[in-house]
Amino acid sequence: MSPTLNELDDYALIWIFSALSIPDIQTLRRVCRRLWYISMQHAVWLDACKTHILQENIPFPSRPLCSLCSRELEQRTMRAYHLGLNWRAESTRLHLLRTVPGNTGAIEEIKFLRTAGKSWIITISRGIWSDLYLWDCDTIQPVGHWSPGRAIFNGMAINSDQSSMAVIAISVKHSSHSVIEILSLVSESSSSRISFRSITTLETRYKPSSLRGDIIALSDHDSETLIMDWKTGNQYLLRSPDTWQDKPLHVAFAAGNVFVVRSRSVCVFAAPPLIPPGDETPVNLPHSSTSFGWVDGVSLSERSIVRCTEKDPPLLSLLVRTKGDDPWSLKDQLQLFTVNSSPPTEGSSGLLRETSSTVSITPPRLALAASLTCPNRGPLRCSDIVLGRYGSAVWVLPADRSIAGLISEHVHLQTVPVPSSNQTLVVAAFPGPLSNEAQIKASIENEEGSSWFCLDYDEERGLIALGSATGNITIFSL
Fold it and tell me: Mind listing the pLDDT tens digit for each residue in 126-137?
């Protein structure tokens, strides 16, 4: 006679759970207390996460699974499972999680921050002077504040290395000089408050573009990018082709190259060695570059997740919001480019132009992978776009200023209803693990009455944060 489930030992039951789908695990655990206890073991959810989340290329936080307790691993696996179902459904749901009225002044920048296993939201607010606020990501309550007083913030970079002591690099403009402060987070033992502590101060006119561990990328608004080890001061200088007001957006490192993404150009440099600060810093020129015309925003994604069939995995991906050569166009093109390390194949075209014949390495290949077209009939209040490494992206469409035509509510003796238009938050998926084609998956209008000025997107948790001109923080969830 075959044994019943209750007669099997714990190891056999764990093996059975490992062969089940996530819904079946939820069903079987309700049979009895013993199965409920077995289903809470770390090994059960470790197998479930590897099989049904990671192997299926569903967004999941990039943190070692062994560092999560069984309860936290179960919660994150269940959240990722429902997120994957939502992405792959015909109609993706996007719902408002909460809106927090703010009294901090207009929010100019908003970022998700992960450090020491905790999730936060960072905002820069502008009144007369600038202030930096830290918010608890779960409660959306302020838990920390920093301001040097009588100064304006001119850019911020979040450290991509979650284990680094340096969390934020922020440009501070005083009345007579500019500096960059490298900040860490310190928990106050007597309360739940978090304080910012300055680790070091860099005297420089540049603003931070990226921060990865001890390496910080600093850029001006025209052509120069300084790569520096902020601990030792060792550095090297990169110079892009001269372009007036070429705002720095991203700096990335991949396969021995440095990618400098600006609002009007993308340049690729061979990464030179760092030079001690006392020595003369040579100027390094790009070995290839390209321009996208009139650009309203660029997002860069490193370590892109691709299908298993990809023979040439991209080094990184770029999402460009462009009008081509017509700044007055009423349509935006959202173009996804991939940067590959291999030379172009027959029939393909590389968009990166080689600018130096003295470089012996093969320049990366930039190829158009997909595109979407969106209407643009109004002033662009929020130019932020965010591309995740799984191929999903978010951006804000401006309100349509033409929807009311020539009607005005002030020129008639009797009330005439005037149609109105609001900003629209758009969620899209480009070819990759979550979609086979470029398509808009969900959208929702801004009904707050105040314009969204900035946004950030946590793809792995399915959260979108928006900051408004009145200081409100709005969180949407997928």
Answer: 888 999 999 998
For residue 239 the two structure tokens come to 């110079």
Task: Give the contacts of 317 (CB within 8 A, at least 6 positions apart).
Answer: 300, 301, 304, 336, 337, 338, 339, 369, 387, 389, 391
**Residue 245 has what pLDDT?**
65
Q: pLDDT below 50 — which residues of the chain?
A: 308-309, 344-349, 356-360
List the structure tokens of 348: 């393909």
pLDDT at 347: 42
Residue with token string 């929807």: 403
What does DSSP assign to residue 342? S
Can you give 90-105 as a three-state secondary structure string? CCCCCEEEEEECCCCC
- In the β-sheet with 288-290, what is the strand arrangement from edge to edge? 248-254, 257-262, 266-270, 288-290, 353-354
Residue 178, exposed/middle/buried by CB under 10 A (0-12, 13-18, 19+)? middle
For 477, what's the count of Cα atoms within 13 Å in the CB-facing half-sphere? 11
Query: pLDDT (tens digit, 9 = 90+) per residue, 18-47?
Result: 889 999 999 999 888 888 999 999 999 999
For residue 346, the model assigns a pLDDT of 45
The DSSP string of 124-141 is: EEESSSEEEEEEETTT--
CB 466 within 8 A of CB 449: no
Q: Is 39 helix (H, G, I), strand (E, B) or coil?
A: helix
Q: For residue 254, what are its two tokens? A: 């991949």
Other beta carbons within 10 Å of 471? 20
Contact 84, 102 (CB under 8 A): no
Distance between CA atoms of 437 and 89, rounded to whole angstroms? 14
pTM of the predicted structure, to 2 decimals = 0.88
Task: Return all residues near 465 (Cβ < 8 A) that are at least 6 apart.
Answer: 110, 112, 121, 455, 456, 457, 458, 473, 474, 475
